[in-house]
Amino acid sequence: MIKAKAYAAQSSTSPLAPFQLERRSPNPNDVVIQIAYCGICHSDIHTARGEWGPTDYPCVPGHEIVGKVIQVGKKVKKFKVGDLAGVGCFVDSCGKCSPCKSHEEQFCENHAVYTYASTELDGKTRTFGGYSTHITVKDKYVLKVKKGLPLERVAPLLCAGITTYSPLKRYGTKKGKKVGVVGLGGLGHMAVKLAKAMGAEVTVFSTSPDKQADAKRLGAKNFLITKDPKNFSNYAGKLDLIIDTVSAEHDFAPYLSTLKIGGIMVLVGVPPESSKLRSTSLIGGRKHLAGSLIGGIKETQEMLDFCARKKVFSDIELIPAEKINEAYERTIKGQVKYRFVIDAETF
Amino acid sequence: MIKAKAYAAQSSTSPLAPFQLERRSPNPNDVVIQIAYCGICHSDIHTARGEWGPTDYPCVPGHEIVGKVIQVGKKVKKFKVGDLAGVGCFVDSCGKCSPCKSHEEQFCENHAVYTYASTELDGKTRTFGGYSTHITVKDKYVLKVKKGLPLERVAPLLCAGITTYSPLKRYGTKKGKKVGVVGLGGLGHMAVKLAKAMGAEVTVFSTSPDKQADAKRLGAKNFLITKDPKNFSNYAGKLDLIIDTVSAEHDFAPYLSTLKIGGIMVLVGVPPESSKLRSTSLIGGRKHLAGSLIGGIKETQEMLDFCARKKVFSDIELIPAEKINEAYERTIKGQVKYRFVIDAETF
């Protein structure tokens, strides 16, 4: 057993507080990672507070993990001690179903083992996430991280990065394409950077005029304040693809109107409520509204390699563990540019 | 001028009644068609009654037209007198914009001239539809109809046929694919026949248990009563594509749950109200909700040729003009298997 320090929520209303846990010693296919940094994702907050259904407490959140391999099982060939490694939103899956075989383990038909607040394949052993000093994970579900990168800025790529990279890639983002990004937060700022790095012209839709300068700095060419309907009519039929990162209820119609014929708007944010949709906003111009959920291990590795090559990293604010609860409040208020990352040395 | 007899609505509340109109003598690129049959589409009813916004009366509906060419302009090479011809939902467009150039004239950015209740490219001359003995149309917008087919059953292909053929084709319907069809009416029964003719296994979703035998006869392998939620859970993750023909508000979530990962549900019916959509029903399984609007001239010709080759025609009830108002009432109540077609000799 490996003794690890962590931060956990003990109930839906309690603040996160120091917590001791034991990670398993490596099985033949496991690697043990000493965590360096872990990002704070909005999902962490929803889960820690039981907002997405009942959570099994204690809950150690965190699925944007980077660190160093300090131990490997005897069958592990993919990693050796001293390698840098990343862990994202899931740590195991059945490996046998059709989605697993087609490298979309996040849709495993039998049991996708989420990094925290989930159970291992045995259906009993609970999983604890990256707000911790250590984690033990099966090698196939661990990502390789290149040396020489700003690791604290790499951590958020494991969720915010792959969540936006996957639909951008799937729907053909490249030079000559026009991509819209709705919302400039943790996911949105990554969508802007990635779409720009893929060669697209990027347009940011935002409610906050004060984000304009930042949008441009991150790589956007155009910035539209969503409160003015004229901004939408000026953009009618212009965009190939929209990545919608907003996680509050909103009307899709104005955004859909800015798509070209056959264009696609992809939802990656999860509003708790239903939104209204008029069929005509899809039928006129035969448009598509799609959803996308993180990405498989193979694609996550491809994304990490792309980001290393293109020097695309998250904009972050590094915090010690004791500031996690404060960071949650600021994340909810949108007061972060653009991701909090916890320094694991402070657990 | 060509004197034509027709049926027209004179106001949103008046029944359709006999009406005289003049069709233009052929311009150099025009053909004059003596109409044999015209289908009754639900859009006709919405427009005749001003339910989709104000209608400019008198209104002669009808955009599912087949007949014989009786006169051609001197530049016409595509048709000669005696040829069979079809006219669908539009009769002209700018021909210069990007959608027109990519054979999607229905999305013309300048002026798609609809077959009725629209204006010609001059912005003034009104268009009158197929509830009539004759129509004059520019040759490029007229479809070729092969000889030897049951023409009265070909007429509905010009709208109901292309509306369902286009998305079935676009999203790869073929042998080995599983296609769902929601609603078994004018559009739905064509979707079943076409998907089956393309080689797919077809599943019909319907509220009416009494349509089961018919669904099987039309080519469906499976029939699901939508009132029982178990029918949806048994079908979770099974379908590649769904064509949703329902034009009343309904919840998309149960249908989306029956799609495979990456699957597509296409809306071709137009509910007057918004429907509710939960983002999670798209994000889980990265699914797509799309819209589709009829099809361009090139694709409509492809569809007519496909239907002639595969012997796919509409199931119809042939009526004389004097029964149009009664047919409207029965169409609204769903009391038709599956399309009313007017015999143009009775005008």
Please, could you describe this protein's structure?
Two copies of one chain form a homodimer. With 347 residues, chain A is α/β, with parallel strands linked by helices. Chain A has two domains: 2-159 and 295-301 and 313-346, Alpha-Beta Complex (Quinone Oxidoreductase, Chain A, domain 1); 161-291, NAD(P)-binding Rossmann-like Domain (Rossmann fold), CATH 3.40.50. Chain A contains eleven helices and 18 strands. In chain A, strands 3, 4, 5, 8, 9, 17 and 18 form a seven-stranded mixed beta sheet that branches. Chain A has a six-stranded parallel beta sheet with strand order 12-11-10-13-14-16. In chain A, α4 crosses α5 and α4 crosses α10. Chain A is globular.
Write the layout of secondary structure elements.
Two copies of one chain form a homodimer.
Chain A: E1 2-8, E2 17-23, E3 30-39, H1 42-48, E4 65-72, E5 84-87, E6 90-92, H2 98-101, E7 113-114, E8 134-138, E9 143-144, H3 151-154, H4 160-170, E10 178-182, H5 186-197, E11 201-206, H6 212-218, E12 222-225, H7 229-234, E13 239-244, H8 253-257, E14 259-267, E15 275-277, H9 280-283, E16 288-291, H10 297-310, E17 316-319, H11 324-332, E18 339-343
Parallel strand pairs in A: 10-11, 10-13, 11-12, 13-14, 14-16, 17-18
Antiparallel strand pairs in A: 1-2, 3-4, 3-8, 3-18, 4-5, 5-9, 6-7
Which oligomerization state do the chains in this entry correspond to? homodimer
Order of helices and strands of chain A: EEEHEEEHEEEHHEHEHEHEHEEHEHEHE
- Major sheet attributes of chain A: 7 strands, mixed
Rg calculated over all Cα atoms of chain A? 20 Å
Poorly predicted ranges of chain A: none
* Strand percentage of chain A: 25-35%
How many helical stretches of chain A? 11
Envelope shape of chain A: globular
End-to-end distance of chain A, in Å?
A: 18 Å
- Indicate how many domains the architecture of chain A comprises: 2
